[in-house]
């Protein structure tokens, strides 16, 4: 390309956003054609990222004027939105700012949104069964309506991007595991919560149904984001908008077997009484222990879902990690949580009330 593209990553201090940045910064080919900008929420996070070769910005994504100014002043062409999958205000502000940027620059602009696979499970109210990411997902989500905050955001990404002349993509993120490469949060959300709850209770629990949800190692996930950005920088015409769903699924996660491996690891460290699993007495008890919203805990803990990633494979995505490697990683996940997980995520704070007494 004859110009430098400017990429803005939201959630840059988070597990996924931070790992995306680390991956991009490690690639001379990408850095040669793109300048990276990162959005963080606090001065402490800004200082942690300041040593990197990128432009660190600290402002609230809820502030429409601040978002518009950041996009225009830094000539942002591509936004990778990894900060929140369910806040439609953030989506609106970012896409509208990109739309104005397209008008002033005459260049194509792109919005890469991060959604979640749990939304497409029966436990979360998905009635259509087996699903490929090349199916008419947008139309089916439209039929169901936007009552679910994440579905509402998915639909808004497509509709608002079309309205504003922005090319959009929905990367549908599964359960993610493995140590991240970012400067701030280096572990995921669900698995650390399961481990921490087990330590507090002195016992490892499982749900009454053995879920087998989609899963992906963090390194494989960020590789998919990298492929999408590469295609954009090369001006390749790839599925977008209504057709731009990308299931980032590498394999399935057999929860009962994985929790048994977690129990074995915690018991060997003397952190739980024994390596036997107990069934959660209720979904409400699980939600309280895990500090997750009770209305979504069933889908998070028991969902399987029939998803098949087609679009990522067509782009050349080849995940390295598989189910066997996932099960073998349980002890390493415990070690990472014990060492690293000191920063609470605020992912649920805005759109749902956490479980309480």
TrEMBL record:
SUPFAM superfamilies: NAD(P)-binding Rossmann-fold domains
Pfam families given in the database record: Epimerase
NAD-dependent epimerase/dehydratase domain ranges (all copies): 7-231
A cellular component term, taken from the record's GO annotations: cytoplasm
GO molecular function: aldehyde dehydrogenase (NAD+) activity
InterPro entries assigned: Epimerase_deHydtase, NAD(P)-bd_dom_sf, NAD(P)-dependent_oxidoreduct
Xref: PANTHER family: NAD(P)-BINDING DOMAIN-CONTAINING PROTEIN-RELATED, PROTEIN YEEZ
Protein name, as recorded: NAD(P)-binding protein
UniProt organism field: Karstenula rhodostoma CBS 690.94
Lineage summary: Eukaryota, Fungi, Dikarya, Ascomycota, Pezizomycotina
